[in-house]
Amino acid sequence: MKKVLTVLSVAFPLIVICTIPILFAAVQPWIWSSYSLIIIGAFIISLWTAQERLFHFDLNLSRNVVLFFFWTLVLCIPLPYSILALFSPKRFETIGKAWELTGSMPTWASISYLPYEAFGWWVFLLGLGLFYFVIRFICSERKVLKVVFFAMCGIGLIEALYGLIQALVPSMGVLWVDYVPEYMGNARGTFINRNHFAGFVEMIWPLMLGYALSITDLRNSLKNALASDSLNRQALMALGIVILLLALLLSQSRAGIAGGLVGLATFWSMTRPRIRNIALTTRLTLCGIALVLIIYSAVIGVGPVFERFLSIDDSNSRIEIWRDSLAIFKDHPFGIGLRNYENVFQVYNQSISSEKLVNHAHNDYLQILIETGWIGFLTLVGGFLFFITKSARRIKRLDLRKDPLRFYLAVGAFSGLVSIAFHSFFDFNLQIPANCLYFVVLMAILSACVEQAGLSPSSPISA
């Protein structure tokens, strides 16, 4: 029985990782709510098999995340109207007018405008918090860490290849959806929106680069290097990296391409001091990636990508959306509830055509601030900054020669997190369930790698 549970504790997370991007990134509520149940089930199984070994808390970070979940739950709970008036005067004023018009008596009401939607997303985020523990625990085993890595990269390559076909055949839609003309001709995999596809790719490719460098053969003679098995494996990984990078370019996502460059710069800055005497196989691999990328780009043609990157041709400016969105925070400093932005923004919209539905702030940080208030923003974003800063210090202390796999995967996961964190200033990738889940998986891999290298782990639910 225990063996069956152990297998299931690995199988369930892998099923989630391999399927959630395919189903249109799980943007439909019924899909991501179903994944919430699967994730919670995976956590229960892992808790049964791992018990106390599943948890490792960093007390400071734990306080942050616990406070975030507590506060966002409070936003969903009906409160006496006197307390509601204290925490959300604007919401109280709106409800008061409704009471006046209908002649009804004041009743309890939540700070969230749509408490059921807010609670549904709260459950999903709680599931992701539990999923972090599951992934970090199973990745403590080297063999399982590799399985998780190959699962992520396998799905990434499938998405990227599909995206390349979409770029080459502009009439191709996304699976059976072919009625969204806005992104036709762009690589977008099964994500519909090219920016979210770009965010997905920019989290995957640094991880693949890290694995390619971890299998370096230290022999430096050309004859031995060309005959080595590591060069063959690196060449395969290099081909995968080229496919991912081409798909990123052909997504024509400006913020996504910039985020990819930020991820590359992060990866280089964290590995450069360690690989000054870089092996010949690695030099050949990196040169091969650059050469193939240049040739493929020339053949396919990436001129339109750079034209779009240098131009601003959107009919609606993000600046206008941000300006109107800040007015919401001004009236609701304690938040409006998770996933409530779309409905509330319509009231504050002064700049965007009423025919265009604005369902996100196109800035994850701003949307977190608006939906969860300054309390939720400081606890969640502050907790992530604490995690990422502490992880950077721990990576510097890792012994590359002792465990190159964990070192390079840690750097790859770190670079992917920095990349998507940068992209989130200009888009809403972390409001997309598949990208949000992969973000948490990268945090878990990073934490597991530094922990198994003999360091104390930093936990996202730790703080």
Question: Which terms would index this structure?
Answer:
0% strand, disordered C terminus, 18 helices, 463 residues, globular, mainly alpha
Helix content: 55-70%
Strand content: under 5%
Oligomeric organization of the protein chains: single chain
Label the structural class: mainly alpha
Q: How would you describe this structure to a colleague?
A:
The structure is a single chain. With 463 residues, the chain is mainly α. 69% of the residues lie in helices and 0% in strands. The chain is built from 18 helices and no strands. The longest helix is centred in the last third of the chain and has 33 residues, at 364-396. The two termini are 35 Å apart.
Show the helix and strand layout:
Layout: H1 2-19, H2 29-50, H3 59-74, H4 81-87, H5 89-102, H6 115-138, H7 142-168, H8 194-214, H9 222-227, H10 229-250, H11 254-271, H12 280-300, H13 303-310, H14 318-331, H15 341-348, H16 364-396, H17 404-423, H18 433-452
Provide a compact summary of the structure.
The protein has 18 helices and no strands.
